[in-house]
Amino acid sequence: MTASSRPALVEGLKPLAENYDLILCDVWGVLHNGVKAYEAAGDALTRFREKGGRVVLVSNAPRPGSSVGTQLDGFKVPRTAYDAIVTSGDLTRLAIEERIDKVVNHIGPPRDMPIYNGLDVRFGSIEEADYVVCSGFDDDERETVENYRERLEAMRRRDLLMVCANPDLIVERGHMILPCAGTIALAYEEMGGKVFYAGKPHVPVYEKALAVAAELVGHTIPKERVLAVGDAIRTDIAGAVGFGIDALMIARGIHAEELGLHKGDLVSDHVQDWVDRQPVTPTAIADVLSWEA
């Protein structure tokens, strides 16, 4: 990659805003860290909307968008920051509806059970199930994939499809980095298992987000007028690049420690050096999501 083709280092959303009509914004790592909200991020999206732009939050949360909205209210993320929410949980529900006459086995904690709300679902053991929905670890602070190895082997023997409700491998919660459902799904894939990924970086969640945006404005928004914002190179940035839209990477997110960004440090050339080594390249990089420095 030449210096001229490197992603721009920007100090906020403001210098980019006029180039886009729609922002597809990640939630965890951009708007909050699982413990507290980032006020500047909510303000930046609110200002973008005040100038006529639209914002659809696109999250790999294994819960319906309505549940994520309630969580954001708890973090005091303003409703003025977004128009709609699309989650991997929403797409998982569609996958469940398509198999409503089938028996499902669930892997994941009780907090993710709203994914089944209003659906006439039959649950069963691995031996009884027609497919499996994986939303995460029962105890993500203590468990590893090895805790699920026997269950995955039993699934593989029966050649069961896994619907992964959260393709993320890891997530930041406060100062902890915790494993997500994507870690279990990846292990199952490596065993030869079949996996349907409901969220980023896969195309269906982006198609759904653009369809929701089109309903909001009454017409299709061209991809060249769409900006994805996220902190994870594997999901947010790779997904945007694969879908053919621009991407703003937030450096002080899931990769902050890897990038050597300590409190008070600013994004600099070494972040671009790190990006050079990645399989995909964002359009621009910002320290955090804000309107301006």
Automatic annotation (TrEMBL):
A GO molecular function held by the record: phosphatase activity
Gene Ontology CC, one term: cytoplasm
Record has Hydrolase as a keyword: yes
Coiled coil: none
CDD domains per record: HAD_like (cd07525)
InterPro entries associated with the record: HAD-like_sf, HAD-SF_hydro_IIA, HAD-SF_hydro_IIA_hyp3, HAD_sf
Presence of keyword Hydrolase: yes
Alphabetic keyword roster: Hydrolase
Superkingdom of the source species: Bacteria
PANTHER family, alphabetized: 4-NITROPHENYLPHOSPHATASE-RELATED, OS08G0542600 PROTEIN
The protein, known as: HAD-superfamily class IIA hydrolase, TIGR01459
